[in-house]
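Subject: Protein record for review, amino acid sequence with backbone structure tokens
How to read it: Take the token row as a discrete description of the fold.
Enclosed: The protein record, placed directly beneath this head.
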Amino acid sequence: MSRPNAVTFKGNPMTLAGEELAVGQPAPDFTLHYFEDGLKPLTLADCKGKPTLLSVVPSLDTGVCQIQTKEFNQKISDLGDSINAITVSLDLPFAQGRYCSENDITNMRTASDYQDRNFGNSWGMLIEELKLLARGVFVLDANGTIVYSETVGEIADQPNYDAVMEAINGSLQSA
């Protein structure tokens, strides 16, 4: 599924920085940060070797973002460590960790693009007007090739969970 040229937030048009990513192309590199006994980097190289789910949300402190994170946490619970599952936002890594511990998010990792927004810019997900990430989902195969890409057209809507899980299961079968 392809992203629209722009997204809307509660009906208002918003502009996405960067280029749209297409299925079949190599995933752009990124450096995100997470908190685990201190701040640590997470890069594309860290994700290679098994399929990766990147669930992108504007902020874990909002209702739809919480629903998306909880839904993927539940849907991938049977997959164990056969995939990388990461929620990406601009929330500080400390806030992401607090959210996960308070909401029993154990199957999804969180990683933040707060330092330089390199993920948002290189993945075409930074909303220029809000300086937040758009809502979307990417699935990468074990080699880091994009096998599913969805940018949700209206930020307040949820992604297509069934299509995402189909892409994940397809990546697992071909891994």
Notes: Residues 6-174 form a domain with the Glutaredoxin fold (CATH 3.40.30.10). DSSP finds five helices and eleven strands in the chain.
